[in-house]
TrEMBL record:
<dbReference type="InterPro" id="IPR011500">
    <property type="entry name" value="GPCR_3_9-Cys_dom"/>
</dbReference>
<dbReference type="InterPro" id="IPR017979">
    <property type="entry name" value="GPCR_3_CS"/>
</dbReference>
<keyword id="KW-0675">Receptor</keyword>
<comment type="similarity">
    <text>Belongs to the G-protein coupled receptor 3 family.</text>
</comment>
<dbReference type="InterPro" id="IPR038550">
    <property type="entry name" value="GPCR_3_9-Cys_sf"/>
</dbReference>
<dbReference type="InterPro" id="IPR000162">
    <property type="entry name" value="GPCR_3_mtglu_rcpt"/>
</dbReference>
<feature type="transmembrane region" description="Helical">
    <location>
        <begin position="783"/>
        <end position="807"/>
    </location>
</feature>
<keyword id="KW-0812">Transmembrane</keyword>
<keyword id="KW-0472">Membrane</keyword>
<dbReference type="InterPro" id="IPR000337">
    <property type="entry name" value="GPCR_3"/>
</dbReference>
<feature type="transmembrane region" description="Helical">
    <location>
        <begin position="601"/>
        <end position="621"/>
    </location>
</feature>
<dbReference type="InterPro" id="IPR050726">
    <property type="entry name" value="mGluR"/>
</dbReference>
<keyword id="KW-0297">G-protein coupled receptor</keyword>
<keyword id="KW-1133">Transmembrane helix</keyword>
<dbReference type="GO" id="GO:0005886">
    <property type="term" value="C:plasma membrane"/>
</dbReference>
<keyword id="KW-0807">Transducer</keyword>
<dbReference type="InterPro" id="IPR001828">
    <property type="entry name" value="ANF_lig-bd_rcpt"/>
</dbReference>
Amino acid sequence: SGNSTKKSLVATIKGEIILGGLFPVHDKGDNMCGDINLDRGIERLEAMLYTIDEINANPDLLPGITLGASVLDTCGRAPYALEQSLEFIRASFTSLDPTEFFCKDGSEAKPKSAPTTVVGVVGGSYSTVSMQVANLLRLFKIPQISYASTSASLSDKQRYDYFIRTVPPDTLQAKALVDIVQEFNWTYVSIVHSEGEYGESGIDFFKHEAKAKNICIAAHKEISLRATNATYDEVIKELLDKPEARVVIVFVRSEDATGLLNAASRKGLAGKFVWIASDGWGNRLAPVKNNPLVAQGAITLELQSTAISGFEDYFMNLNPRSNHRNPWFVEYWEEEHKCTWNGISMPSSPAEVNFHTRRRPCRGNERINRRITSQENKVQFIYDAVYAFAHALHDMQQDVCPTGQGLCPGMVNIDGEKLLRNYLLNVSFDDGYGAQVSFDNNGDAPGRYMIMNYQRNRRTREYEYRVVGTWNSGLQVNHSDIIWAGDTKDVPRSRCSDPCQEGEIKIMQKGEQCCWICTRCNPWEYIKDEKTCESCDTGLWPYPNKTGCFSLEVQHMTWTDLHAVIPMALSALGIMATSFVISLFVMFNSTPVVMASGRELSYMLLGGCVFCYFNTFVLLAPPSPVTCAVQRFGVGFGFSVIYSALLIKTNRISRIFESARRSAKRPPFISPKSQIVMTLILILIQVLFTFVWLVLEPPGTKLSYPDSREPMVILKCSSDDISFLVSLIYNMLLIIVCTVYAVKTRKIPENFNESKFIGFSMYTTCIIWLAFVPIYFGTLNSFKIQVTTLCVSISLSASVALLCLFLPKVYIIVFQPQKNVRKLTMNSASYKMAPTASSTMGNNHSSAPMPMTENLRLQYHHPRVHIGGVITETETDRDSLASLDTWTFAVCEYETYRNTWKIVYVNFTGIAGQLHLHNSTFVERVVQRYLEVSESVDLKLEIVKDSTSGVGTNTTLPPLQGSGGTRSVIDGAGQGFKFKFKFTS
């Protein structure tokens, strides 16, 4: 049965130096050994026997010495292999001391059957077997060379110091598997491995390499040593739970690969998975035999090897009649050909041969059918392992045997440690089949793998393994030779999430290391790593691909900037307009319109406008300590000139008419010279503030970063915006006070219409400044708009003053010159008397008494009149009017000129004002609006006697004649009040 014990069976070749051999002749069974291993067992064993035959036939290698062999079956199980290996070490602890025995004939005592002494062991196959055997052999210093054990743990020379191998460790195989995954841009894979050293260490190295290459593991399953169909079904179910991971890395033994594919086939999963397998699957037929559709497209690794041509002929010609040294060959023959050997020339008893079922008799002339397209891939590595021992023994023979021939005494008892250290680890030879055999410090061979693709042959339509690439410290794959599941050339997709685009990072999904959502970094951030966006440092901005940051170009306003066009154009127009007004005023300096406007303050005001316009060009200039100082001085200075002049004007008007209400006494500081001095004082205050500011905060430049989220570095003046606003507080105060005066004087006579235009100017200026402040501080992130707003606001403020105050005058000067001359005109003169009154009109300077009546009134009418002249008063006049309660006379504005009262040239409409004579004292009182210029002026001069005066009912008035002269109003007592008029138009 499949569980029979095969302990007593040994394949042997007699020789002077014996090499042990360990091969999985049988598969694992339920208890110990199972069925004959058709793929690996007999062919590998025969490869060792063939190689020994070839060495013995070579007179140049180990001359005079015959190599022998003692080969055992491991059944693929470590405990059984360890038990079998005891045969190799029995000679070491059963040796007898001849002196303890006595022979009657006096000869030396010898045992009847001495145990076989081996100088080295070839094997085992599985890593778990090799580990157990290595632990045993090292105790007796017996070198061991494996032809198939690839576990990385066996490279540990502290534990396995007598173990070397002709195959590379699984660390290289793991690297090759990772390179394959990378080659096809797979980032999300599942892994399955067999329990035991081979699968566990191999998959651990794969995971380590995969992590370094950002390859993620979706599902991870282990197949136990005692796996059943249910075990494999559970593995497939787990793999299906991760549908995005189509690629499955398979690091399993051949039998586990078979079970896995069978389970997938039972579920009808043809084409569902892409299998990437280690050399445990390799190019074997067993896994794919009944599952070609499920296995189609699989990529497998196989150690790169070349068929040993002589062995092919040797093996194909073997048959049970001639092959007596292999006790398992009959069993192999029976299983291979499904027949029963009749026992002719059997080397052992029939009881020791494993018969499974009664079959047809074997004829003995059957031919071994090649089960794969090439011989078993480990044959070359067995061949190299045996030759490595032969070359090491040959080198030892040359060193210890004087003649270099035969088995000299120095090689009778070979020191295993010496054989390993001095010879085996130093061998280097060409095996004649493309392999250079040598060992590194860990006893490992160089890594060379073939990349196999299981596909349908397009010509024969049969499934087969095809070599599509190689791995030798690096991957080389011919993509055009690969055919995936479904007979397609399209590379399958195996990833949880697509790679993020340029400028995107991964937002990892909870519980899924390899699944993410791609999101873009903010414009001001660069990609620090694949999962992190980070802001660039101040003054830096990310490259378009977000891989790093670069220094931003420093920006500043220039005269060529597009944002500078409008402010400069507005300023240029303002400068030209102001220059035109100044030129016009100079040309018409002595005309009534210019003189009535207050020439001195007007010129100062125009100069302030020009200064404000020029500020635009300074503000738009590249920042430097000089330009910054000029900016800080110029803005405040220009405004202070304009609003100081306007404030003095409105204050003067307000004081004059306010004073008229209370007293006939002339207000102080209303002369032109006084006005200029007060204006300069107000301007000087701003200048002092500015100089203090420049001292406390010296002018300079700085780099400004208004918003780290915008690609902007601005070169600007070092003073901050708050300081700039504080510097304008004084001018704001001037504007506020000026506006208050404009409101106070809004109802003065319409002839004083300059007050109205000053009011318009102030109201508009307040609106401009109220709009400017929020716009200026609301555009901190756009310095060009901010500077443009400042320039436009300054120019608009100057333009408002220019247009409101000077446009009407310019209009009269240019388009109505007839109104800008002095002309004596008297359209009419009338007076009214009460019905009971009588009057006597005298000519010229008559002083004849006139009867006084109530409400006696004298009116003069003229469409446009300028009044000038001198009012004089004598003591007699004042005394003679002492009895009057109130006399009222319509006048306008008074100025001190040559120590007399002067009525200046003005325009006014309607009743401009009233001058009260009360108790012989002039009291000035302003009751209506004052406008400097009016299109229509109607002069009404009234001399009114208050009805409550109590004076006699008759009053006589002298007639008004001529262009000027003295006129007297005579009261009832004959006394008079003299005043002189001059009328001009």
